[in-house]
Amino acid sequence: MGLGPNYLEYIEESVAATLGDLRDKRMLELGDQEIAHDQIPEKTGKEYYENRGVDHTSFDLNGRHGAHRVDLAKPIREQPWLGAFDIVTNSGTTEHVEPFEAQYVCFMNIHNCLKTGGISVHLVPDVDELERRGRCKGHCNYYYSHEFFVLLAELNHYTLVSSKVVRGLRCACLRKNEDRPFTEDRKAVLAAIARKEGGKVYFGINDQSVFGPIRQLLRRVLDVTRPVRRRLGLMRRPPTAH
Questions:
Q1: Taking burial as the number of CB atoms within 10 A of a residue's CB, which of 14, 18, 35, 162 is the most buried?
Q2: By residue range, what is the domain housing residue 83?
C-alpha cells in the first residue's frame, strides 16, 4: 500500500495524541512503504520519517530501501528488536502475511516489538468497506474490522486510542499498557479476521520481480491443499506465543 497524505496524517495524529513529538521516536514500519504523491517530496516511508528525526526500521522480505529481510509469519526472536519500538506501523502489510494461521504470529510480533507504552498504528482493508462498497476487492485474503481491534485490545489490555475508516481503510491505533505476553487465545484472534480467498499474495509487500507470480502460485497451491495436508498430519504445528 502506498502512503498518501491522509494516511500519514492519521499516523502523525495518533503519535501526537499518545506520545507527543514524533522526533527521536523509534519506529518499526512493516512493509517497504512507498510514497507517490505530488505534495510529498519523499519517495519512501523510511525517507519521510528519517527526515523528521525518527529512528526508523523497516521489515520486508523484498529487502528494498534498507528494509531488513524479516518473515512476519515467523516469531521474531532477535533481542535488539524485542520491546524496542515506540511505534509500529502496519500500513497495508499484515493482510498479505500467509498462511492464515500466521496472522496470529504477525500480530504477536507487533506486540513483542513494542515498548510498554508504545503504540501500533494499523491502516488495513476493512471487511465492511469490502462488503458494502467493494473496497480492496481482490487485494488480499484477509480483512479486518473495528470489532477485531476492540477484541485485540481486550485480549491484551491495550487502549484502543482510535478506530475509524479513512479513504476506505480501517485505521486503528492501539496502545500497549503492560509488559505482558501476547494473548494465548489464538482461536479468538483468528476468528475475528475475515477470510476471503482469491486475493493477491506477495513475497514482500512491493515484490515486482519475475518470481512474484511463481511465489503467488506456490502459495495458492499450499492454500488449496491445506485441508488435505492437515488431515494427513503433514502440517507443522503453529508457533506458540512467547
A1: 14
A2: 5-207
